[in-house]
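Researcher: We're teaching a course module on how sequence relates to structure. For the next exercise, students receive a sequence and then see the predicted structure as tokens, so they can try to spot secondary structure elements on their own. Here is the exercise chain.
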Amino acid sequence: MSRAIERLIRPTSIAVFGGSWAHSVVEQCQKMGFTGKLWPVHPNRETVAGLPCYASIEDLPSAPDASFLGVNRETTIELVAKLCAMGAGGAVCFAAGFSEAIEEDANADQLEQALLNAAGDMPILGPNCYGFINCLDNALLWPDQHGALSVKSGVAIITQSSNIAINLTMQTRGLPIAYVFTAGNQAKVSLAQLAMTALDDDRVTAVGLHIEGFGSVREFEQLAQHARHVNKRVIALKVGKTETAQQALKSHTSSLAGSDASADAFLARLGIARVHSLSIFIETLKLLHVSGGLDDRHVLSMSCSGGEACLMGDAAAEHGLVCPPLNQSQFDALRHALGPRVALANPLDYHTYIWNDAQAMEAMFTGMLQTKSGIAVLVLDFPRIDRCTFESWIVAIDAFKKAGSNWSGQLAVLASLPENMPEDIAIDLVSGGVVPLCGLDDSMAAIDAAAMNLSKTTDVLEPVLLPVKTVSDLKKELLALEEALAKRWLSSQHVRTPKGALLDFNGMSESERSSTIDQHSKTLTWPLVLKSTGSLHKSDAGGVVLGIENTQQLKQTIAAMGASSYLVEEQIGAVVFELLVGITRDPVHGFLFTLGAGGVETEILNDTVSGLLPLSRSNLQSMLETLRCYPLLTGYRGRAACDINELLDTLMNIQRAAQSIADDLYELEINPLLCTEHGTMAVDALLRINQQSPHFISTP
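Model: And here is the predicted structure for the students to work with:
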């Protein structure tokens, strides 16, 4: 498909079908300077935008490489079939009213399938999209205004939304755009396929995806592998939240992980940095275009204002970036360049003593660069060009560039307010290998995204686990196992659970109840925990009592609780920490493994991390280490530590257990998983499965 798409997006001949929209496409091609053959097609017009018009598709001189179909959906299907039959390269289907309109038109899905059948092996963009702009070869199928210009290299922007694509082309921040693709419904050509095709072009430096829906998970996995193969970075602005199946019971895991956590985990797994606004999207792409990606998260900051230095330090810390302290070489060089009255630090406020002194500024910048770092940032807001002059600002930039000409890291000039970076200055900086960053917070977020360490994800490009059954299919036969049965199954899967007994008093007399309690209490070691059955959050309902020391107290507690059945277990002592472990089925990405601080305060603590199955032992170790509570597991301030190796063994066993019933599993939650000095213990468990599962259908 990639070669077929290349013919479509790098055409030497373009056919344009339709009325006013087609006229606009022809004008945009002429304005862009397209030098290939341009063939307007209309049954009733002699010319379109000054070009002779062909009456029908049959009158074309030859099969076009690319065609824009600005006609209604029924005619679109007819033309696609004819283009395919004549060996055309591909088409942009502008018409709407296909699968995106299924709620308004019951026939919309059938029409899209008819379109696919008509296309055969021929690639089509859309339907319901504007098409593409190729700024490298001055070729486009685009029926509206845009702000793109011809470039020799740049980034590819790929989106499902045509209006978002237009907006991005209008940016004035110095981002060189090589391609703009809109995918619409992705009926034939997906976002991932377009991205892989763009990555194959040596003139493309990075790819930015605006994603409404992933489509094929497997294609995105292929995209991630391909990006690594060609050593280029991909970023994503993922919008919307994945709607999981409606919960019959609300668990801690579902409330903590949230419906969008799986998208986060999936992109992180692929090594695709996720950004959360269009501004950060642009700033990150600029950084990647110039640098290809940052080696580390260390930032050197220089400004002539203490206020700016403070803002830089705060913003860097907020985004997990590091402003390392000055080493002795930096300190000595800066002291020599700035004199005794300037406090030396990183971020550096170099004051205005040397402003407009090119030699002194170069010496100061050179001193600051006497260390390795991912990026060095000169904070420089330009004055308004319509009211002020800024010659001395150019002196600062030139001195910065000279000082960093042989430095190993990336240079950047940052305007704390986006409007304070003139476009012509930004373009000139990019051409000189310096990143023009616009907006303090957006820029720090962009540095964070560009510094994503792909080496940490090299062992997780194994395909995610995707079950055969859909969530909706499974939901029809959903069963929530009682805690005792869920823990019995966990125990069979090598996950330790407390020793205990299920006390079912239904139909028993008082004497029989007393005898049953006596019998089971003799087999257990005090103290005990008593739990009522049949409730999801037993602690909230007063259904859990700890520290029961003898048989009499046990009987009194049972009488006071007033339930008909109970789970009585040995209480676990010497607890270091309580964790939550949850595995939930996501309709798009497979199974989300959530790990975090557990217990009854788990939502308040809100300390979780998620990943997609399967996960390696090292992945789980890394997930543990990102938790704020991790120091408590390892012996915080002299306290007892849990056995991390035993904990990792247990987490791996929980994962294997879930994988063994993957096609029937809806949700598994262990909360808490008690971590002690010598092991782990699953003391509460929720398991929701397909009630027809062969793994459980015979469970007593």
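Model: If you want an answer key for the exercise: The radius of gyration is 31 Å. The mean pLDDT is 91.
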